[in-house]
Amino acid sequence: MSSKQQHEVFHLATKKQLQHIKDGLHRISSQIWTCLGEESGNLYIRYDQYVEIFLVPKQLERHLRLIRDLKSIQHTGIYFGFLKGTEFQLSLEGAEYIFNTFFKTNKLRLKTVTTTIDGAKSFLYGNTLQTTDLSPSPESLNRKDVFFVLNPKSQFIGIGYVYKRDNRTELRNLVDYGYYIRRGY
Amino acid sequence: MSFEFKTIQPEISDKAKELAQKYGYRPYMIERYFSMFKSNLEEVREFLDANEQFSPLTLRINTLKTDPQAAFEALISKGYRLKPSEHIPYAYSIEHDVINEKTAYTKPKSPEYEMQGFERDPTTLKNIEWGRPSYLDENGKAESEKRDETKSTHILRGKQIATLGSTHEYLLGHYYIQDLASMYPVFYLNPQKTNFVLDMAAAPGGKTSHLAQIMENQGHIFAMDNNKKRIKSLVYNLRRCGVNNTTVLLMDANSSYKQSFNPDKILLDAPCTGEGLIRDDPSRKTSKTLSEITGMMRKQYSMLQSAIKTVKSGGEIMYSTCSIAPEENEFVVQKALDSHSNIEIASIDDDWGLPGYINVFGMDLSEDLLKARRLFPHIHNTIGFFYCLLRKI
Q: pTM, whole model, 2 decimals?
């Protein structure tokens, strides 16, 4: 495979791609991009069904350069999300990384909701949550807000976004930790 | 001495034929067990009887995702009785996969129950007899005609694993269901936080995630597999378990040396005929011929050769299989020793496993193979397993 073809399967995110990722993260919290900084590592792009994004810690980058066939790379570091056109979608693992690294250490504020026991179970089945599934129900649930969803033990279980319809407010499931079992992995 | 990978057909004795009939094996296998257990009929019987019982369910608490004490307590609160491994940190066997009597047979009311399982259905649980299933008769003997019972116990076993594999904690990656024997090679490879480690046949990821756990998500692991379907399971298991220090490569392990990386350590848990797995998969009693074992031996040797070429000088290779066949283990290592003057067998600080064979099937092998380790169902109550640590000089 030529170096040009190699570049087409796996490479550092371009300026344009970084901008799309930054814009996407900004919709969740304006602070995330700043927090990510350089110590977290660099963002790499892998082309598959979607444009996959990986956050690669520094200690991994050195060895990545030793791989001759970049097409063989299926995953590296933290799967951070994907780009669908110009729209960035944060992955479950990316969200958990942000939650653990920046939110839990008080470096960052995030919108979080805690579910009831039934709510957690339902969310892990991939379902949409109603306000009655949240405990306590947040004061403001603005349309399209992205929330980090926690179970009653304050463990991160996924992310959802607010959807409003006919005076009803729902928290729609973007991705959750039941995903793997539902996919049969 | 150098091995030729050819099929050695043993002469089948009447006793071997009788036991093969009784336990439902191919006769050649029983004849080989006589050779492996030094013609000790009693030990052969113990081994065959042990193979009629499932290996204990075991799991490893994943410290990358959770506080081990919290995970332990969460499982205990669900009614699981956990017995810690004597050797492997955070590994537990499950003595009985039961849930609290209070909640097992009635519709759950307490919030604790609701958090217990992802899909746990009390009506299903009601009909399950918990505890390790067995189809030994009153005299402790198994009969091959009891296959229907075997089938039902296998369904039960599947349900037990499914229950343990569907709790909230499992989904969140707080533990990994993994046979105890398969944790030993990773533990004794002893990867350090600064190491660059190659896992040559990594899917579905149990050993890779264990490597990452020991390395505390530091260093770098290349996890390699050549099967695209299996690699998906590998990737998702690593993601679920919070493994961040790994690169997954779709690559044939035989060609790893053609890359320009030279890892500090290599784990080669080689594909095998699975002769150590009979207690969990009785179909293996009849599914493989001797020539298939020979074919597998060639494949394993080829992978080991590639590992030897790939690892850096002074680096280590842990070779392991879940087969008890000497051809897939000691013979492969012996062939590697004969053909590569730059490798030696390193000692493992393990007084639990039995030493490797140095004389079997009429072949004299290097005494260094006493440093290799074997696990047997009737002695260690695990699946049958082999591991050997090699060092590149």
A: 0.88
